[in-house]
């Protein structure tokens, strides 16, 4: 091996080592309410940084998800507990994974034991991923349909009273006063026993 070959090999070794060191495993967690424990989702998994949303997954416009997507770089892996934690419909799911892979970022779903590696266009993995996403979306649609049917039946029998408000008028006034005074909204939501989404609905 010539000195030039040795120099090139050393360069490649250092480059690969630097890529391995620089790459990160970024966790994304989503819980739908403040009562859920976010630590359980990725418990025991080695992660360099974690982003946590406490919000519904009706769309991808979630602050911590956007922060996670902005943070990841080529060579990183975005680790999510399950597909429904990342998105609630097939279109959003596929788009997010494709965009990450296109940027050189791999996506790992722990519960489904599925990995989508950047640069690896395996048609079988894509097919399985699409099918699982579609089934998950179909199952949620069935649950919603059964809920609507149950409510309609209860109304027909005159026994449906609707959802009880989380806060009464007095508590709502207290909440709005504290928000106007500049109180931390996350702490307020926890203090009043409501989610951040519900808090925003009251102060709107």
Key traits:
53% helix; 2 domains; 204 residues; 8 helices; 5-stranded mixed beta sheet; alpha/beta; Rossmann fold
Fold blueprint:
Elements: H1 3-22, E1 25-31, E2 49-54, H2 63-71, E3 77-80, H3 83-86, H4 90-102, E4 106-109, E5 114-116, H5 123-157, H6 169-180, H7 185-192, H8 196-203
Residues in helices, as a percent range? 40-55%
Which structural class do the helices and strands define? alpha/beta
The CATH superfamily of the largest domain turns out to be Resolvase, N-terminal catalytic domain
Number of domains: 2
Q: What is the distance, rounded to the nearest whole angstrom, between the alpha carbons of the first and last residues?
A: 72 Å
Average pLDDT level: 79
The SSE order reads HEEHEHHEEHHHH
For the largest beta sheet, what order do the strands appear in spatially? 2-1-3-4-5
Question: How does CATH name the architecture of the largest domain?
Answer: 3-Layer(aba) Sandwich
- Stated plainly, the CATH topology of the largest domain is called Rossmann fold
Model regions low in confidence, pLDDT < 50 over at least 5 residues? 15-20
The largest β sheet comes out as: 5 strands, mixed
Shape: flat
Strand-residue proportion: 5-15%
CATH class of the largest domain: Alpha Beta
């Amino acid at each position: 091996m010539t000195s030039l070959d040795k120099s090139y090999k050393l360069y490649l070794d250092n480059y690969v080592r630097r890529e391995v060191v620089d790459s990160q495993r970024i966790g994304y967690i989503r819980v739908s309410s403040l009562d859920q424990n976010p630590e359980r989702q990725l418990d025991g998994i080695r992660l360099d940084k974690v982003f946590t949303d406490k919000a519904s997954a009706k769309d991808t416009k979630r602050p911590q998800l956007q922060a996670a997507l902005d943070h990841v770089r080529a060579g990183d892996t975005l680790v999510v507990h399950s597909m429904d934690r990342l998105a609630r419909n097939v279109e959003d799911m596929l788009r997010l994974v494709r965009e990450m892979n296109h940027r050189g970022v791999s996506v790992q779903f722990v519960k489904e034991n599925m990995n989508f590696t950047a640069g690896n266009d395996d048609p079988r993995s894509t097919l399985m991923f699409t099918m699982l996403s579609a089934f998950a979306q179909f199952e949620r649609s069935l649950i919603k349909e059964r809920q609507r049917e149950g409510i309609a039946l209860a109304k027909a029998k005159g026994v449906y009273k609707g959802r009880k408000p989380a806060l009464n008028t007095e508590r709502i006034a207290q909440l709005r006063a504290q928000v106007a005074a500049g109180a931390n909204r996350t702490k307020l939501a926890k203090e009043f026993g409501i989610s951040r989404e519900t808090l925003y609905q009251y102060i709107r």
